[in-house]
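ok, trying the design again with the full structure, not the truncated one.
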């Protein structure tokens, strides 16, 4: 159970705008590169790093590879945000639920017969298949933002949350995390597979209801933004 998401959902009663994205795209294939183009109402924000959700964003849920129709877009994103500037943050791969997630192993590395794990950790498989780093984090989204900030400020030239964009398909985790961090949120409205679950339908219904009542996402404030100077 994601306790962090449950607590965050309750906090939305006080401030429901936290779940709203700054930009919405139909699918991952529609993601503008560079991501500054996703926010036409703003003066080309200085986005230096991108945080990607995995499941049902660029990958089939529980798969540890890029969904094939999205391969070209994924490589385009890697070219625009090379090295540590592109970071995968998943609530499955890289968390404490991912056995031996701290290990960084090539996909071809043999697993000793005496090893207690039956397969390589999801994070290592995902890194080997995508060529992109997966954050190892102890707190799940939407509460992983302190670890994300610490990682990106240490590994890139990011100096402020406003220089980060979060891309994901979940409003109550990905977009809430982006807003709590002070980053830009890009919502992938339709995932790789269609989800009909109650939680997903509730998210989308709430987003539409909030928009019709004039709610907007929190403004991103930082260096180079209209509100940060």
């Amino acid at each position: 159970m994601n306790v962090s998401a449950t607590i965050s959902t309750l906090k939305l009663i006080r401030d429901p705008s936290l779940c709203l994205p700054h930009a919405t795209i139909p699918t991952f294939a529609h993601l503008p590169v560079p991501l500054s183009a996703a926010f036409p109402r703003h003066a080309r924000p200085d986005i230096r790093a991108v945080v990607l959700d995995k499941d049902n964003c660029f990958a089939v849920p529980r798969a540890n590879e890029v969904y094939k129709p999205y391969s070209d877009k994924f490589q385009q994103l890697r070219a625009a945000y090379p090295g540590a500037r592109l970071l995968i943050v998943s609530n499955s791969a890289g968390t404490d639920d991912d056995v031996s997630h701290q290990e960084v192993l090539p996909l071809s590395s043999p697993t000793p017969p005496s090893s207690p794990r039956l397969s390589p950790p999801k994070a290592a498989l995902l890194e080997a298949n995508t060529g992109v780093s997966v954050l190892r984090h102890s707190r799940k989204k939407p509460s992983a933002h302190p670890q994300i900030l610490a990682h990106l400020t240490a590994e890139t030239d990011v100096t402020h949350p406003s220089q980060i964009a979060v891309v994901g398909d979940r409003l109550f985790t990905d977009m809430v995390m982006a807003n709590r961090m002070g980053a830009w949120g890009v919502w992938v409205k339709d995932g790789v597979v269609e989800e009909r679950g109650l939680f997903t339908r509730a998210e989308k219904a709430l987003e539409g209801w909030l928009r019709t009542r004039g709610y907007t996402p929190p403004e991103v404030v930082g260096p180079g933004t209209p509100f940060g100077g």
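Keeping the full-length input from now on. The longest helix spans residues 198-212.
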